[in-house]
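yo, histidine kinase is done. seq:
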Amino acid sequence: MPRISRPRRLSSQILAVQLALTTGVTLLTAALFLAPLSAQLDDQAMRRALAIAQTTAAEPGMARQLVTARPVPGNPVQRDAQRIRRATGAEYVVLMDRRGVRWSHPDPDRIGERVSTDPSAALSGREVMEIDRGTLGQTARGKVPLREPGGRIIGAVSVGIAYESVQDRLIGSVPGILAYAGGALAVGALAAYAVSRRLQRRTRDLAISDIGALLDEREAMLHSIREGVVALDAGGRLRLVNDEACRLLGLGPEHTGRPLSEVLPAGRTADVLAGRVAGDDLLAVSGGRVLVVNRMPTSDGGAVATLRDRTELERLGRELDSTHGLLDALRAQDHEHANRMHTLLGLLELGMANEALEYVTETVGGHRHTAEEVAAHIRDPLLAALLVGKATVAAERGVGLRVAGTLPDTVVDPRGLVTIVGNLLDNALDAAAGSARGAVEVEFTPRGRTVVLRVSDSGPGVPEGSRDLVFTDGWTTKPLPAHGKRGLGLPLVRRLAERQGGSAEVSQGALGGAEFTVVLPESLEDDGTRDGPAPEQRA
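structure:
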């Protein structure tokens, strides 16, 4: 015999299950409806038989005739009982005396015989309703005592309703019940088919195993790719956050299902993810990381956002800008070095050896003095190297760079401080290079374990209405560099400062341009550093 295979598609399986459930529920409902109907019809038949028996027992003269007549065919009791039977449609109306002998019966030959069922209950004064089998088959019967006018029991009346008529009524009700059940089944089948068709369209007629495999593949793909993925529902709650997004945004699995406003601080990152800022390849800074965010709405009112980490690329871009600036400075130094060598050669050819020696000492000593002064007061090697390099760039761009203050070599996060100082100096040199007498000033003020950094320039400054915008991701007034993005340095400065519990602000400086003040708490090791006067170094 061929084996019946189960449907593999999800929609077909759902349809089969729904049809089976609908059929089962319909049949169960019909059975539960027929069961009480049968009991109700039985009760009605027994009550009808009892009512006929009660009416017969109350018939005037019935008790007197039972006492005066004899239990033979054609007696008065038989005539009255047959009349009542025909009038009521009962199967039989039997009167009996206290001995249980019949005085009436549909079959006259049985008159004078004892009844086939126990009459003791009725003869003792009780009324009985029951379904029982006698000489005329199974009937719904009622039995009542027959009393003379004085109340003494002289016999009993037994009335039976043919049980076949009850069953006929029940069977007659079945077609109607089945019709209703069939209608309900048809409606349920149509509804199940509509649901399965809709499910088929939504699942693209895939099998359960295919759907399970797709879900497994989706989970593996989302958590293995090196690009952050964040899915939001229509209410702005996190529906999905993959591993890379958790790393970039500092989130965890426990944040899934919570509103975006509760898990991310207010800022550009939250605005871009929530859709309050529109565009492609939007830049945001989160936890010291430069992110590129793209957001795509979904049909259910939610959205899916992707995040790419641009931190290293941005760092390389800035290093490239710095390298270009250093190359320009080296080219200028090359020309200056050539001029100095020509000057030195001329002095030697003229026999002015002493003047040549003084010239070389002055030229070399100036650069050495600058490096020695910076290294003496800024003892962190990374920061000192940065300042010496920036001093060279500033000199070649015609900008005077002055470094004030001291800083011990016990910096907690020297790389972070180098990033902050480098970004501020780049902006300051760009602003001061366009002024008549360009000047930039850097001041370090240690206060216990806190460092206060001030960088001011002689540039055009920042208008008061734009002082909050300069710390916004992507905001800039400069032309785009080679790597195509600007407006990230100052937001990164503020994020790095806030990450240490500090702050970054801009105001009008003493040199006429902008003055950036960065407060960095807990930036120095606790080694007994004392506040003291801040010497100045000019480069």
